[in-house]
Each structure stands twice: as C-alpha cells, then as structure tokens.
Amino acid sequence: MGELFEQLVQVMAALRGPNGCPWDKAQTHESIKRNTIEEAYEVASAIEERNYEKLKEELGDLLLQVVFHAQMASEANRFDITDVVRDLVRKLIERHPHVFGEKRVETPEQALEQWESIKANERTRSGSLMEGLAWSLPSLMLAHHAQKRAAQVGFDWNDPLAALQKLKEEVEEVESTLQDEDSNRQRLEEEIGDLLFSAVNVARLAKVDSEMALRQSIRKFIERFKAIEEIAKRKGKNLAEMSLSQMDEIWEAIKKGKVKSR
Fold this sequence. Notes:
Layout: H1 2-15, H2 22-26, H3 33-49, H4 52-75, H5 81-94, H6 97-100, H7 108-126, H8 139-151, H9 160-179, H10 185-205, H11 210-234, H12 244-255
Helix pairs in contact: 1-4, 3-4, 8-10, 9-10, 11-12
C-alpha cells in the first residue's frame, strides 16, 4: 500500500512536471476548488445509491483532489502530502484520548461529545468558536455547523418544539413582508434567510441532517415529476398543454400510490 500511494504521488508530480499534461500544469488551488467540492458530492451520491463499485471509483477521484492540491502546495514550498498525512495522524490521536490515552468512553455518543469538546477547546484558543467555519459548505450545512458551535456554550433552544415555534414566527414574518407593498427584495431575502436558518435549527435539534433531508426531498420530487411525465406521455398528453390542476391530480395520485409510472 505504501509503495502504491507513493506511485500515486509520483504520477501526480509527473503530470505537473516539465513534460507533463498542459491542463494539469495550468491548474491552481482556485481553479480546481469546484472539482474538489463536486467529487465530494459524487461520493455522497454513490453512498445514497448504495453503489459500492461507483463509491470505490468516486473515492479515488476525491483522493486525486487531495494529492493534486498537495502537489501544488509542494511546488510553492508551502507543504506536501507528507505534512497532510502527518497532521491528520496527529489530529486523530489527539481527538481520541479514549483510544490513545487514559480517558474512557462507553458509547458512540460519548465519543462524539468528547471529539466536539476537544475541537471547541481548539477554537476557543484561536479566539472564537466561529473560527474556521468553511464558507464553501452548502448553506444548510454551514448553518448547522454555526448553530452547533453556538450550542456548545449553551446558546441554543431547549428542544425542537421551541425552535419550531420560532420557525412559525419566521413564516409569519415572510408572509407579512410578501403582503407589504412597500417591502423591498433585500428585506424579503433577509426574512426568507431567517426562515431557512430556523428550519435548520428545528432539524438539528430533532437530530435530522437538514442537508440530507432536503436532498431526499429533491430526489423524491424528481422521481414523482418523472412519473407525471411518463403518465402524461402514456395518455398522449404534453405537460405544457395540461393545466396545473390536471398535473396536480396525477401528482396526488402518485403520492397516494394509486397510479404508477410503469
């Protein structure tokens, strides 16, 4: 395994070398940042599909991104892949004192609580619990992390029902803004942002991953819409020519399992 990983590092160095690939040589951290994010999502997609052959391939593509960034950093004398691995090993050991030290935990929940506590202490030493938030994260995930960090010092709702009440208040704020003819787009954007942030709070306190919950709802919507298209096609109809009530009737029938697309 060690030799194989070293070969991977050498291949990446060759791709960026004098006789390497023009495209690889032209890249920067910034130019492939989006690729890195997309590859992480491809991994998540393969997991959701339970496609383990695809997962193996996507993990390889994600590993490529790690090696690619490390190679570019090495060329600039910032750090190399060895530094990346060394820091990761150190972090894993420091955050698992129940394995590599004297502390003991009995449950996964206790282990996670200890991990978060260690991370919180590290951030406090840097000046703020909000230090190091990854702004490139999807907004729902970023909101979850910001809320979770604030909760570490007790700045949080007691339970999801209390957060739900706040969510209802935010719905009323959005409704009021929409009804106000003098309101502007900026105010509406702010109120809808507060609404979404409150929804994440409810999900987090109910121990639901809002990002994954939304992805599942999107997948469900797409599957049902495709079913509408298929049913309309079987009936010789074009969706663009159908009324909303006609499409909604098919939608409700699909939801209730009364009709199937195939």
